[in-house]
């Protein structure tokens, strides 16, 4: 019997761990490289927790450039920008602006909906091995609320929205979700989808890590940083790490924004930029009225997800390079927004702050699959939807690596030479 091929998966976040699992199940031997002492300690640690398979609207859209200019001057605006002496920032912005049109948005949205459905199916498959209860999964449903009539009407008019959505007007939002009682008078309406879920991404990663380590084809996890991709005779020969060189039959880049610099050592240009996001995790006491439904405040670009006995509030896009420091002014803004919108939802005085870098592409579509090197593969660029797409993109990657046909055309998901 032919020995199973070996794969090195670089990245121990939710996408890397999911990639490792699906490749193990596909028959590969897997070694995992993670530079941090523990898995899921970066963008996967305290993200929004929403599994939004149908709400996958790309950031690039008609009118976004104009809105972005307005947000920059708002005290609690969702966007902050710090110019860098880095051509990658400006190139990303140029490419992003080229995607801010209805046609590009529609094409990307259609593809992300296909990936979202594959992700839903893939998580259901994983449930046979990993019970949903281990990471506080709930079929909470998702309610996107709109403050302005203009934004609400635009959402209702979108042709690609789910036919099974429920449309709510004004005060109806509070009848569906009592936690919105104070905010409802300010709302034009909302759109509810019963098929969306919430879960604890970090708990998911830890539970999946246990299954990976126990898998008979798993070889080891090396907690060391990958530095250089060494190419020889048209393929990857080895990876240089802080612990020395490591070789395998195949290599998978799934290390979030760090994948960008690593790919560059092999002359691959990954069009990604780190969009820094923030979250608060506040305890829910018996006296609080926390939302049971997952809430997205469309104009404020803020989401609320009840995860176990805590409320996760996530928001904001800071274009400040690879700066992971927590900006206390941004946390103060996020706390202020949460108190104004849902003052009785949680104990905001005891909230824990977090910041992470979301590896985003200009069109918001992840890059999955082959590269010009026959044994180097990509699973990167998921932006704020890494948790949502992790299982689907891992399943898709395993399918492509085995030489099987993709369940749908890759289009904008494929690496462009």
Automatic annotation (TrEMBL):
It comes from the Bacteria. InterPro entries: FAD-dep_OxRdtase, FAD/NAD-bd_sf. Keywords: Membrane, Oxidoreductase, Transmembrane, Transmembrane helix. One of its GO terms (molecular function) is D-amino-acid dehydrogenase activity. It holds the Pfam family DAO. Residues 7-399 form the FAD dependent oxidoreductase domain. The chain crosses the membrane at residues 7-24. One of its GO terms (cellular component) is plasma membrane. Belongs to the DadA oxidoreductase family. PANTHER family: D-AMINO ACID DEHYDROGENASE, SARCOSINE DEHYDROGENASE-RELATED. This is FAD-dependent oxidoreductase.
